[in-house]
Amino acid sequence: MSDTNSAPAAAPGPVAGLGIVAIVVVAIVAWVIIGMKLFSEATLFGGFLLLWHWANLEHLDIKRLPATIAGALVGIGLAWQVVYLSGVMGTNGLILGLLIMVAGIYLQIINVVPFLFNPAAMLFLTVAAAPLIQLKVDFVELALSTVVGGLFFGLFIVSLQLLAARFTSQK
Predict the structure, then answer these.
(1) Residues 6 or more apart from 54 whose CB is under 8 A from it?
(2) Given Cys at both, which of 25, 26, 94, 135 links 86, Cβ 3.0 to 4.6 Å?
(3) Is residue 90 pLDDT above 90, yes or no?
(4) What is the pTM of this model?
């Protein structure tokens, strides 16, 4: 996560808040248009969930985006392997899958390999392990939607930052 010792940024004023909302709407509409051409409705949320995590927990820090995407993929993988192993091995697979899942949670708790086992992994594990998601989602497509969505929103934010820097330097 980003620096936890720094004070939270001041909330934008009402006019700046409207500008931010307008930019968010553009990003969301653009992702829906692009995402619906590439993915199904059932997996489009992967990009949005990644954006939520990256924006709210990593404060849109581009240096944190790779770990956020990697963690998201780990979380999806941990959820998928329970479904896969139980389908292949029955109850024994379910037990093995749950043990692997618990091991992943433990690695995140003790902060081992934080690039992979991080809060993004736990968020995506929590969502992807929900029974309704497991029954309806194509896990490969969810992983692809998450990566492509993360790259899209990362490029979107970096582009906005470069544009803002260009306008600030012209003053």
Answers:
(1) 60, 64, 65, 68, 120, 150, 153, 154
(2) 94
(3) yes
(4) 0.89
